[in-house]
C-alpha cells in the first residue's frame, strides 16, 4: 500500500498538466500513487494522462463524464489506498520535497492534519503565504480561533496546502459536496477538523499556487444562484463553530463568526517590483509578503445612511419634525412591548435627554396622546438618576391616528429607498438580496443581544 495518495482533478489543462505531473513524479518521497481524474476534458489532457500512466506504474487514470471538481475528487477518494491524502490542482505544481516534508511533519507530530505555507505565483513572481506564525501542534479549538481571524484566506480554505489522514476521511465518510461550486474545499476542511484532535502548521512552503481568474458568474451561474449557494456556505460556517465550541465559548466568539458574513475570499497578489516579491526560481527561497489591504464596507454604509436620511427629511419637514423625531416614531411602532430608553438610545444614537425632548415634541404635535404623559414624566424625572438607571426606563407610549398617517408616508418612502438600492437586480436577485439582508440583520441583532 502506498504511503500517500496524491489526487489531481484534470479538466482541459493540457497547457500546464505536464508541469504539474512532472513535479509530482520528481518527489523525494517516492512511495505514492498519483490519481489523475479526467473530468471529461475536451483538449489533449486525456492523452497526456494516459501517456504518463503507461510510463509510470504509480500513475492511475480515470476518464469520466464532466461533473465538476467535487465529483472528480470524490471519485479519487473512493479509489485512494494511501495512508495520507494530498491534493494538487492541475495548473499548479509542487517542490521536490513537498510531500516528504508534509509526511515527515504528520508522522513526527502525530497530528491528524498538516497545514503548510505555500507560494503564491503571478507570472514570473512568487511570494510565500501563510497565516499561522506559531510553532508546534494546535488543538482543533486553537485552530478554529486562528481561522476566525482570517476566515476567507486561501491558506485555511484550500485543500492543496494540507495533508490528511485517509483513516479519518473514511471513518467519518467525508466527501466534497457536489452541489457547491464555491468553498466546497473549505467545507471539507472544516468537517475534517471537527474530527481531528490536533493540527500541525508547517512553515516549509512547497506548493506553487497559480491563481486563475474567473468568477462563478463567468462559469454560467446567475447571481441569484451564486448568492443562494454562498448563504448555504455561511450557514455551514456558523454551524461549524457551534459544533466546535461549547455554548459559552461560541457566544464569546459570535462577532468573529459573523465576520464571515461580510468577508469574501481574498488572496494578496505577488506584485512585480514590490520589495517583498521575488522573481520565481525553484532554487532560491522566496520571502513572505504582507497583505496589501482588503475591501471595506464603511463608505457603502455611510452612503446608504445619507440616502435614507434624505428620504426621511422630506416627510419630517412636511410634518414640522426632525429626522430623529420620525426615527423615534418608527422605533415606537416597531420595537414591541419592551421598548426602553436604552434600546432607543443605542439604535438611534440619541441621549436620554434627546429622547425626552423628542417625546415632548411628539406629544405637542399630537403624534403621541396626552395619556402617555405618565411615561413621559418617568423619562423626564429619571434624567436626574445615574445614566445606567436612566437607560432602564421603559417607553410605555402609544401612537395617535395622526402618527399612523405619517408612518404610512414613511413606509412609502422606505419602499422607494429599497427600490433604489435594488434597482439593478432582477426578481430572483432581489429575493436573494432580501434574504441576505435578513440574515445580516439577525446576525447583528444576535451580536448586540437582541
Automatic annotation (TrEMBL):
The lineage of its organism: Bacteria, Bacillati, Actinomycetota, Coriobacteriia, Eggerthellales. GO terms for molecular function: glycosyltransferase activity. Keywords: Glycosyltransferase, Transferase. This is Glycosyltransferase 2-like domain-containing protein. It comes from Berryella intestinalis. InterPro entries: Glyco_trans_2-like, Nucleotide-diphossugar_trans, WH-like_DNA-bd_sf, WH_DNA-bd_sf. Residues 5-170 form the Glycosyltransferase 2-like domain. SUPFAM superfamilies: Nucleotide-diphospho-sugar transferases (SSF53448), Winged helix' DNA-binding domain (SSF46785).
